[in-house]
Known about the structure:
The radius of gyration is 23 Å and the shape is elongated. 22% of the residues lie in helices and 31% in strands. α3 packs across α4 (87-99). The protein is of the alpha+beta class and 305 residues long. The two termini are 27 Å apart.
Amino acid sequence: MNELFTQKYEDEEWVEDEYPWKQFRRKGYGFIYIKNPHYLVDDDDREYLIRKPTLKERREIVVNTVIVCNGRTFKVHSLAQRLAVSDRTVQTILRQLEKDGLIEIIPKFDTDGKQKGNAYKYIGPPCEFYGTGLTLKDLYDITQDVGFRDWAWKTHGFNHDQNWHNIYPLCKAKFERRMARKEYLEENGLPLVVPENIKYLVLRYCYWKGETKRVKGHYLYSQDRTTKLTLEPLNRTETVKIFGITLYAEIAGTKDNPQVTIIDADTNKQLTVFTWFDENILIGDLDIDEKHVEQVFILGDFTTK
């Protein structure tokens, strides 16, 4: 990782005591637990592998379950268990899909006229599979990495208490998932569509001023902050001020894949473009004199809330 990042965080030991496969197995909450076939092999202590679909991914899986069933009746409770959510959650998704004109819900009755369930039929645009084709099989197939989230938020944190904290594990985990999804989409000839309903670009930034070589214990000034930019409406420009530095954020792209171009307001020079499918790191350095340096580190993180 870059110099500023490692300088600020290298002295803090990352204690791996909150990993989700070591926690009590959650009942529901969308966490899928899959028995790890490599448990206790080659120092792999993960008894279970976890995956958690986003709301958008879960909706796609439900649609494709309807396509696979091809108008036949299926038990909502069984699908809910496979998705590790409540029956009501799946029922809500099905009702919304019906409202959106993607499926038809057909009541089924026994010979006495008593309803015994529903059949579900796909009536949306003709396709083999809807969207990017995510199915229950993909969700449970650990040999196929399509970028499902595989961490719990409790595992990582970003604190604002005037101290430096190691956010590298979270950055790495999220970046690896994004790259896996990008590879999956490109390999299948699919457009780059973000698999969650992102609404904001959060800029997490660090400012540091101090001695160039003797970093630890010799800060002249250091601070970390967060700024949140709303992604809608698209095709607009926001002004962002970070410790006296003025930047323009040009918000463009599409709803499924927004892009934010960062421009230096003083020189009108493009510095970088943040997208969900990239690492999104920007570093600025300014040598004050032979011994001191001023640095700004910006991490762009696309979020749903």
